[in-house]
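We now fix the convention by which a protein and its fold are recorded. The integers have meaning only within a learned vocabulary of local backbone shapes. The record below shows the convention in full.
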Amino acid sequence: MEFDDDTARAIAALRRDRGLGVSEAVNELIRRGLLARSARPPFRQRTAPLGVTIDVSSVADALEVLDGAATR
């Protein structure tokens, strides 16, 4: 199995520092990545009132309302 240079350096450093085998080091790095990702707050879409009613049954009309006729 081949690793990219940055990944190989991280594996080598973890093996050296903690005395792990390759599989153990790779598993540890994967677990760290999974934990870091789950620590993020969930995405929330922010909305703001536009003061405009938009009929979304026609995409072209909706874009004209949002962007203006000049963008056609």
